Amino acid sequence: MTSDQRNRKTTLRARLRAARRGAAPAPLSSEVLAAVAAFDVVPGETVCAYLPIGGEPGSRAMVDALRSAGYRVLLPITVADAPLDWAVYDGSLRAGPHGLREPAGAPLGSAAVASAALVLVPALAVDHRGVRLGQGGGHYDRSLPLATCPLVAVVRDDEFVPSLPAEAHDVRVNAVLTPRAGVVHLPL
Ligand SMILES: Nc1nc2c(c(=O)[nH]1)N(C=O)[C@@H](CNc1ccc(C(=O)N[C@@H](CCC(=O)O)C(=O)O)cc1)CN2
Ligand SMILES: Nc1ncnc2c1ncn2[C@@H]1O[C@H](COP(=O)(O)OP(=O)(O)OP(=O)(O)O)[C@@H](O)[C@H]1O
Known about the structure:
This protein has 188 residues and is an alpha/beta fold. It has helices spanning 3-21, 29-38, 60-68, 139-143, and strands at 46-48, 72-77, 85-88, 93-95, 101-103, 116-122, 125-127, 132-133, 151-154, 160-161, 175-178, 182-185. Helices cover 23% and strands 24% of the residues. A hairpin with a 7-residue loop joins strand 2 (72-77) and strand 3 (85-88). Belongs to the 5-formyltetrahydrofolate cyclo-ligase family.
């Protein structure tokens, strides 16, 4: 890890968050169902999803659509300086840190991500190698090594970029989902 890479990440996060403030909503309900099916994940199997904050693409309708289609949906519970915890989304939510909405059900532990057939990963940007820039907590970087399935980052079309600063701990994703391009397998 170099301080140069860290500074570049911080500058990029500020720019990307500012751009998201004016962005139109991107609910992604039908796109996510198509993406999950494209990975041959079938109802009854587990999908780790997320509820958007700060202009992230996606929506509550997106996780409701997965649940209604019969998928077992896990949502993250943020634990400081630790891997994410997870709980089944049963339709009920409560408030979490950073304006996050978290599942109200019983926490399953951080190893629950290993039960997923697909993980939808929120991000500020993704590059052509699969390097992902997140909100800066390192939560997904601690959790994704526990997953054994495809990792699909979800960003807006203009947040899928040729190159991002990468550090050794950055877990690379296997694909990106954007509103216009749909699923793009990575690295390009
Ligand atoms: N939708 C979503 N859920 C998620 C994540 C995420 O990136 N997106 N996380 C990924 O790890 C975890 C939460 N981690 C977070 C870590 C830091 C901040 C954060 O610093 N937020 C700023 C506000 C950003 C803004 O202005 O948009 C803050 O609170 O000041 C947010 C979430 C788990 N759940
Ligand atoms: N596997 C890990 N174990 C311990 N600390 C980690 C790990 N991965 C990342 N971190 C720490 O988390 C902090 C944030 O990392 P980074 O900037 O890569 O976050 P991010 O990928 O944007 O966040 P997130 O993964 O939550 O979306 C850094 O201080 C980093 O050292």
